[in-house]
Design goal:
The complex is a heterodimer.
Chain A: H1 20-34, E1 50-51, E2 55-56, E3 63-69, E4 83-86, E5 89-91, H2 95-106, E6 116-121, H3 127-139, E7 144-148, E8 150-151
Chain B: H1 14-28, E1 35-40, E2 58-63, E3 69-71, E4 74-76, H2 78-89, E5 116-121, H3 127-151, H4 157-165, H5 173-186, E6 191-194
Parallel strand pairs in B: 2-5, 5-6
Antiparallel strand pairs in B: 2-3, 3-4
The chains are: A alpha/beta, B alpha/beta.
């Protein structure tokens, strides 16, 4: 009986993918805009701690970055203790003053009082190192500092 | 002249190209964190004369090498620190602070202007805990400043500061600045770190 005969060619119609490029482009533009190419290659682990009372650093070009943390997996030969990284290489506490001087020299003179030092320190580092860095910064009169943190609660997440 | 339709360009592979770029940017993206807790270090020159501060105006916070907290000679959990700091700062023991809502305990701080929080840590203290403690202490100040801002009818202090920085904010910035400075004077952030 022809009434119950299956229709010929009853496949699912193909999904229209014409708008797929649009969606992909949208995502692409988002990531293109949001991407910041890293200035420094980190040789250390840099897992920042969490805090919720944060303020934003407003001017990117007025920030000097000091990194600290223990050497990452590729640099195990430098030991397991937390170390300072300035620009692209490991540094000692004594190099901080020279680094600040170099950064200041590269900026316009009238901007120097507004320079902020951002400390990007791994959450597992101990305070001895930070204390030394802070002491060095005081010696060169770089008093504005910022402990860079991720936004989140200080409790719970470990 | 015979009209000829231009041959259509095949756009089928556009999605592939876009995907390629998308994946490249996805992989290289690191959303940089550029926010944190702002602090000001004390200048190095030491004044010779000793400033005499009454013991009751100092709120001592000690952090030992095992990340344990000792607040005013008592062991404390991190979660209780904020409330304790607020209670200390907002005490208003000498009655000169008419906006303080504390218990006016004569054994605690005189007024917010005199109240000093002293933070001491050891070399072995972990950075994470140190930041957590700093965060709680800053939070204590922020809570009090928010309260003060609400009292003069401005919402919250953080909102005021955000408005001040916002270029598109329509209100009167000079007046706002005055109010912000007043609140900062009412609850000055006196957080000293012992080396």
């Amino acid at each position: 009986m022809s009434k119950f005969k299956k229709k010929k060619g009853g496949e699912m119609p193909a999904v229209n993918t014409a708008s797929l490029p649009d969606i992909v482009f949208m995502l692409l533009f988002f990531f293109m805009v949001a991407t910041v190419m890293r200035q420094n290659t980190l040789k250390i682990d840099n897992n920042l701690p969490f805090a919720d009372q944060v303020e934003k650093l407003d001017k990117k070009d007025l920030v000097m970055y000091i990194y600290a943390g223990k050497p990452s997996a590729n640099y195990k030969q430098f030991g397991n203790e937390a170390r300072i990284q300035l620009n692209d290489d490991f540094a000692g506490v004594r190099d901080v003053a020279a680094f600040i001087a170099a950064e200041r020299a590269s900026k316009r003179e009238e901007l120097i009082p507004f320079l902020t030092t951002a400390l990007k320190v791994d959450s597992d580092a101990n305070m001895g190192l930070i204390g030394d860095i802070k002491q060095e910064l005081r010696k060169v009169n770089a008093l504005k500092i910022n402990y860079t943190t991720k936004k989140g609660s200080v409790f719970g997440r470990d | 002249m015979a009209k000829r339709a231009a041959p259509e360009v095949n756009a089928g592979s556009m999605a592939d190209i876009a995907f390629l770029l998308l994946i490249f940017f996805l992989v290289t993206t690191t959303i940089e964190t550029d926010s944190g807790i702002n602090r000001k270090l004390p200048p190095i020159e030491e004044s010779d004369e000793d400033v005499i501060i009454k013991q009751k105006n100092i709120f001592t916070v000690l952090l030992n090498g095992k990340d344990q907290l000792l607040v005013e000679d008592e062991i404390m959990e991190l979660k209780d620190l904020r409330a304790a700091a607020i209670e200390f700062l907002d005490n208003g023991g000498d009655g000169s602070c008419n906006y303080c809502q504390g218990s006016r305990d004569p054994k605690s701080s005189d007024n917010p202007d005199k109240a000093i929080i002293s933070l001491k840590n050891e070399r072995e203290t972990s950075y994470k805990t140190y930041i957590a403690v700093q965060n709680e202490l800053v939070a204590a100040y922020n809570v009090l400043r928010d309260k003060r801002a609400a009292a003069i009818g401005e919402g919250s202090f953080t909102e005021m500061e955000a408005n001040y920085k916002d270029v598109n904010w329509p209100g009167n910035k000079e007046k706002l600045k005055e109010k912000i400075d007043q609140i900062k004077l009412d609850y000055p952030q006196k957080l000293s770190e012992v080396q």
